[in-house]
Amino acid sequence: MLHALRLRLPSFLPSFLPAALAACMSLAVAPAAAQTTLLIPSRTSIEERLAAPSSRGAAQAQQPQAQERKSQEATKNASKDASKDAPKDATREAPDPKAASGQADQVEAAPAEPPAPPLSQTVGSVLASILAAGTPEVLNEEIDLLIAGMEPARGKGVAMDMPRIFTIQRFERDAARPDQPASRQDLLGDVEEIRYLDQKAWGANVGIARRGLYHFSIETRPWWDAPARSYQQQIVKTIVPVYGEDWGWHLPSGLSFEIVPLVRPFGLTAPAFFAARVLVDGKPASGLEVEIQRISTDGRKPASPWQEAVASRTLESGDVACVLNEPGWWCIQASRQGAPLKGPEGEPSPLRVSTVFWLYVDARSAR
């Protein structure tokens, strides 16, 4: 069975694949966590628009042609004028050779070249072109982010408090340190309260001014899970490429607890193989519980609670792998124990911290 699966997968997949596939085959199906935090962008990618040439640019392109036509017309007119002034009868008085030669020079002479622009104007044009080349491209794009609590397998909304942290990091291949974010923004102040699935939720509209690969992440406030008699807290991340830039999807965001893809997390088509590495304080975390689940959008209820999510554990390398067999939004969620917090009655209560990674899988084309 394992050998047959290997034959169907590309040969360039990482060396961890045999162990990861073994983990996939040993996956258990378990009831999903009661609540998962959504961090869903309104666009899975932002693509570059093809701009039509401006009228100004077209006019500039036509200027050399128009000047050439004017030069040709001027030469033709000069020839016609010279033929009108020439004597019609050869028996008449012969023309003065000096005058004739002067007329010939006037006819054959090339159009006068325009005077060269002043040196100051030339230097100014050169400086302007240098400044334009060094000015970063400014985009005029935007994206909306949905931040909400949900039971994904049941499609049921859950009220949530405002997140503690909301950050955006942009990665760029040509940055001075491409392994580090080229820019970072804290946009918690842009988060607004909304309603989603008839529950309290949050949303943000984010302007995108530069091309690159964007890491969006939030950290929730701990909430009390009464059935589990413990607190829950989640650190959530998703990735969006802008204008075809894909550098940085394999790099960590520097979160205290995060999932880093080992397979590019966008441009996937179901069924899609996906693998990731779980990090705690930047180091691989082994033996952590992992749940993989998809947002249910068709209203179908699982036949049993065990079918709401697929459960696994990270390998010694911190890796986890799975097959995302249906189109839609999927989340990979790893959990660990945090430092206890004071419970509602003042007693120390356990804290369960989860890291969640959201990605979208497209449906296969009908063609």
H/E topology pattern: HHEEHHHEEEEEEEEEEEEEEEEEE
Number of domains: 1
Specify Rg, calculated over alpha carbons. Answer: 34 Å
Mean pLDDT: 81
- Kindly estimate the percentage of residues that lie in beta strands according to DSSP: 35-45%
**N/C terminus separation:** 30 Å
What is this entry, summarized?
The protein is α+β, with helices and mostly antiparallel strands and 367 residues long. The protein has 5 helices and 20 strands. Strands 1, 5, 6, 9, 10, 11, 13, 16, 17, 19 and 20 form an 11-stranded mixed sheet that branches. Strands 2, 3, 4, 7 and 8 form a 5-stranded antiparallel sheet that branches.
Describe the protein in words.
With 367 residues, this protein is α+β, with helices and mostly antiparallel strands. It has one domain (13-47, 136-360). It is 20% helix and 38% strand. It contains five helices and 20 strands. The strands form three sheets. Strands 1, 5, 6, 9, 10, 11, 13, 16, 17, 19 and 20 form an eleven-stranded mixed sheet that branches. A hairpin with a 2-residue loop joins strand 7 (192-196) and strand 8 (199-208). The longest helix has 31 residues, at 55-85. It is elongated. The model is unreliable at 1-17, 19-30, 53-59 and 86-107 (pLDDT under 50).
